[in-house]
Amino acid sequence: MAANWYLIKYVPDPFRDEPKNIGVVVENDGRGVVRFMGQHKGVFDGRRVRGIVRSPRTMKAWIDYVEYHLTSGTFREQVQRLSSRPGQNYRIDFRGTVDSSGSDAEISGLADNLFSELVGDPGPAAIQSIDDLANDLLFHRLRFPANHHVEKDVSYRVNLRGEPHELGFDYRYEGDRTTLLDKISLSTPEKTLRRTVHDLMFRIEHVRDYEELREPSFVTLYDLGRSRMSDQIEGHLRVIERFSHTVDVRDEGAAEDVADKLGVPLLQSA
Question: Would the pTM of this model clear 0.85, i.e. be above it?
Answer without folding.
Answer: no
